Amino acid sequence: MSLWSLLQYAVFMLVVALLVKPAGGYLARVFDGEETLLDPVLRPIERLIYRVARIDPVQEMDWKNYAISFICFSLAGTLLLYGIVRLQGFLPWFFQSYMTTALTPDLAANTAISFSTTTTWQAYAGESTMSYFTQMVGLAAQNFLAGASGLAVGIAFMRGLARDESDRLGNFWFDLVRGALWVLLPLSIAGSVLLVWQGVPMNFHAYTMASTLDGGVQVIAQGPVAALEFIKNLGTNGGGFFNVNGAHPFENPTPLTNFLEMLAIVVLPAALTNTFGRMIKRPRQGWVLFWVMAFLFTAGLLLVGQSEQAGNPLIARAANISMAADSLQAGGNMEGKEVRFGIAQSALTAVATSNGATGSYNSMHDSYMPLGGMIPLINMLLGEMIFGGLGTGIYSIIIVALVGLFMAGLMVGRSPEYLGKLIGPPELKLIMLYTLITPVVLMVLTAFAVVSKWGLAGLTTNGGPHGFTEIFYTYTSCLANNGQTFAGLSANSPFYNLTTAVAMMAGRFGLAIPALALAGLFAKQRRRPVTAGTLPTDNAAFAFLLIGTALIVGGLSYYAALALGPIVEHLMIS
Length: 574
Fold this sequence. Notes:
The chain is mostly helical.
C-alpha cells in the first residue's frame, strides 16, 4: 500500500476526530432544546408543525408509546411512498419512453419499505425506473424522514441510560422534528450547494440524447441529483439516482466530492458518541466508544486497501506480470473501480458505506478480491456498530458492550452493570433478543434462498462460493438496513423483493423495539454508586473487552457462512 493511500486514510480519520466534539455538542444542544444559531429561523417553523399536527412536544412518552409512534410514522411513510411509486406515471416529470423498468406491485412495495427503513435497497436502475417527481418528493423526502426517525430512536436510547427512576424517554415527535429541521436540513442544503459547485446536476431537464463516435445514440439522464445525493449519505440511506450510484460522474464527479460524501456518512454517527458522553455527564465514556469505532474502522480500511492493492495472484501468475503500483500503472485489482478514485478512495468508500448503514458505493464490491469483499460484509454482520446508521450505531455498540460486561461479570462472579445500571434478568433477555434476531433471520433467509429454485434463479452470473456470497451479502445488507449489494445477483423478482423486505423490517423494527424497551428498563433504575468492585468502562481495558466481544460473538455467529463464501474463495485463488 502506497504512502499516498495511507495519507488519505489518515487525513480522513483526523478530520472525523476533529469534528466529533463540536458536532456532538451541537446534537446535545438540539435535543435538549437549548439555544442554537438556527433558532430564529427554525423555531417558528417548528411551532407551526406542532400546531398543524396537534402535537404537544412537552408531553414525554414511555418506551411503548415511543415505539408505537416510531412504527406508525414509518408505516405512514411506507404507504405514502408506495402510492407515489405506483402512480408516478400520472405525476409530473415522468418520461415514459425512458422509464423501461416495470414497477410491479412487489418491486414498488420493496422500494417503499426500503426507503422508509433507511435501507434504500434498489433492485432497479434509478434513471430508468424513477421519475424526477418520485426521486424528489418520494425518495428524497424519505431520506430525511426515515433518517430523522432513526436518529430519534438513538437519542431516546441514550436518554434511557442517562435518566434515573423515570419511565420517560422523551417525545418522538419532538425528536423527529428537531432531527429533521436542526440537523439534516441545514447540513443537506450546505452539502448540496458544495456538490453543485463541483458539477453535480440540479435541474429538471429532459434526458439528453447524445451521438457516440461509432454512430450510436446514448441517453444521458440529468435531473435533481444534488438534492438527493447529499441527504442519501447524511441520512445514512444510500439510494442512488443512477444505477451505478456514487461511481457515476453526475453523483460523484471529483475526489473532493467523494471525500465530502464519506464525511457526511461518518461524522454524525461518530459525533453521537460525544453526545452520549454529554448526556450521561461522563465524556470519557463517549470517547472510549469513539476510539473503539475508529480502531475497527481503520483496521478494516487497511485490510481492504491491502487486499485490493495486492491484486489477483491468479492473473499475476498466469500472465507473469507485476501487480505492484509504479509510475506507469496503479497496480492491484482495478476491476470495477473508477480510475479517478483508484484503489485508495474506492477502499475508503467501501469501508465507510458498509460501516455507516449507507448503501452508496463508488466501485463494484462484487469485483473485489475475496478478502476485500469480506470486510464490508463483516462490517455489516457486526451490526454496524462501527459508526453505524443515524441512531442505530450508538445503541448497537452499547448493546455489544453490555454483552461483554455480562460475560466479564460471569468470570469475576459479580452482577454486571453499566453506568451504575444493573444488567439483571429482564435486561439480559432483551439484550439476548437483540443479539439473536440478526443471525437467526439472516441464516434462515440465506438457507432458504440457496436451496430453493427461486433463490438460485437470481444467480445469473456466478455460482459456487462467490454466488453464495452474493446471496449472503444481499440479506446481510438488508438486515443491516444498508442497501449495498454484490451486483452479480439479479434481485428484481417476487422472491427477492419479498424476502429482502422481510429482512429490512426485521433489521429496522426487530432491533429498534428491543433497544427502546431496554432503554425503558434502564431509565426506571436507580443509579448504583461506584465501588471498588465496579468494572471501569472508560479505560483501555474496557475498549479491548468491547472489541473482543464484537469479534468473538460475530465469529461464533457467522464464521460458518463466511467459510462457505469469501474464505474458501480466497483459498481457491491463493
